[in-house]
C-alpha cells in the first residue's frame, strides 16, 4: 500500500510537470515536421503545422472511444509528407446502433497547414489487437500500434501521432493530453497511505495482543 501511494504520488508529479510543459508549448509557434524531427528534446504535446497527402480509403478506426457517454471511434489515417509517413488523428465520430455498421467519414486527399499536436502512443500489454492484415478497409483497431500499422501498409511510419486540433463539423476534437489531473493522483496517494497506516496499526496491535497472550500462557505454565 505504501508502494502504491508512492506510485500515485509520482504519477501526480509527472502529470503536473507535463501540464506545465503543455502550457509552455501552447505559447510557442507551431513547428514544422522537419523541425520537430531535428530536435533532440522531447516533442510530446508540441504544436505542429503539417502538410501532406493522404489516402482516404485507408482508414483506421480506434475502437472503444467514449464521448459524453456515447460509444464511437477515433479516426486515423496515414499522411505522407515529402519525406515521411505519419499517422494523423482526425478526431472522434459516433458509432452506429449496430456494431458491425461502421461510420462513414469524408476525408480530403491532402492536408495543407493543418494544425495539431504531437502525441506519443502508449502500449497497453493487456489489450489484444483483433485487426488483421487483409485488404478490407476501414480497419477497427484496439490501440495505436505503429509496428502493426507498418505491417499493414508495408511502409515505415514515424513513431508518433499528429492529433488535429482545429474545429471541424464532422469530427469532435477535444484534445485532452491529461485525462486525470494531478490532484486526483494525490488524493489516491493519500488514500493508499491511509490504508497502509491503518493496516500497520492493525498488525501492530494484533501482534502485541498475541505476544501478551503468549506471555500469560507461559506464566501460567510456570505457576503450575
TrEMBL record:
It is found in: Cell membrane. The chain crosses the membrane at residues 186-207. InterPro entries: Surf1/Shy1 (IPR002994). Pfam families: SURF1. Signal peptide: none annotated. Keywords: Cell membrane, Membrane, Transmembrane, Transmembrane helix. It is a multi-pass membrane protein. Its main location: membrane. Coiled coil: none annotated. The keyword Transmembrane applies. It comes from the Bacteria. Belongs to the SURF1 family. This is SURF1-like protein.
